[in-house]
């Protein structure tokens, strides 16, 4: 399967590009354009490169379920991706991708792909509301995200908040729950492939309870529909902190009010 | 790591027992005592055997995050489990287990283990209520679950509902949400190892919207604490059905009101 031509010129696709070296072996070059607070590349971005290799060998177009274990921090620079087709069935195809840097495995992702072509006959039941947000034009752009020397990811992704997050002012509002708009800064439209990465692009909800040092152990994402073009409405929240761990849920809804991706990660407080 | 001696005589532990054949290779014998409606062994039970092999090679006691992809239906009978230690660090250990039957891979599970020894200094934040249930003695025992010829799993696991589920009467109440008590029928107490299986023991929430044929693609469980002995309070729910798929969330709380496990699966309607 070749890359979708409409996405070829965009940063996300350039920065997750993989070159095939042999069957099931690819080279990627991670950039610093997706670095977070931690000064490491965002995990969702790293996953994007791994899935870019994996999907080339699978006979289904859309990631349905992806689980990724983060084993060591990624660094900008060259990486090797090793892929395996685990099973191809009639409705789904499952594979696994390992990413290595410096000879060490840093990421292990398993994924089942399928076909999310809209089916007007399929049953739809939605027992939850999309985030209720003012239009993106009426929302707040965190100026910290515009600093030239700022976070890499804040130049690659645009965020719009209904009000200024307390953690940006050195306060904490005590509620680990945020809703905001998100899109790629260069106009790349979302698709099911990029959603599997974008579920990890939110500033952590636990910033609002004063927890700044958290690393993800595992992230599972379910992609539920092909997104409409335009801004994505996001909801990120944590309900349970205990034993030095917390979960973080992320939902992404498209502009038509359709849930397009659900994600949960387990993270460790440092 | 040897099996906990207090669990050795119980059915769950007998039926998930594995015998080591070589480094990273084990034999299991799946029984029909955990069969569901589908007449296949419950996926959580199958996962239990895979984790029983995997945990023997890891230097941490408690599963923190487990993701399992169900590739083909399991059948009662012999199975091979192949395990791999992916990474052992200071706080966590990650491994992978593949289960095969008839030379075909049926289950691929990846897991990060850690140590959930209670830490009284750790921060605790709980922004959700446990299920509000009458005491188990005042709850309903589905008589269908007591038929001698009934579902295998209904003999191995005890369920107590606050009221009779509509789906048991051939009706549907339209709300895919249930709360109930659960425990092993033979008195085996829950622990973090068994929780990773028990999160899959709930009758599907979508039974209440008339969906009886659903198969799990992927299941992720986060074990959050070591459970107190006794009945477990469970909450199972689905919020989104679309494109022939639905997610199912399961929470397990122990009798002290502590969330001990969270699970989400992605399932496909047949």
Structural account:
The structure is a homodimer of 270-residue chains. In chain A, 10% of the residues lie in helices and 39% in strands. In chain A, helix 2 packs antiparallel against helix 4. Chain A is globular, with a radius of gyration of 18 Å. Chain A starts with 10 loop residues before the first helix and ends with a strand. In chain A, strands 1, 2, 3, 4, 5, 6, 8, 9, 10, 11, 12, 13 and 14 form a 13-stranded antiparallel beta sheet that branches. Chain A is mainly beta and 270 residues long. Chain A is built from four helices and 14 strands. The first copy, chain A, has a single domain, classed as Porin, CATH 2.40.160. The model of chain A has no long low-confidence stretch (mean pLDDT 93). In chain A, a hairpin with a 5-residue loop joins strand 13 and strand 14. Chains A and B meet through strand 3, strand 6, strand 7, strand 10 and strand 12 of A and strand 3, strand 6, strand 7, strand 10 and strand 12 of B. Strand 12 of chain A pairs antiparallel with strand 7 of chain B. Chains A, B: This is Thioesterase. Chains A, B: InterPro entries: ACOT8-like_C, Acyl-CoA_hotdog, HotDog_dom_sf, Sec_Metab_Biosynth-Assoc, TesB_ACOT8-like_N. Chains A, B: It holds the Pfam family 4HBT_3.
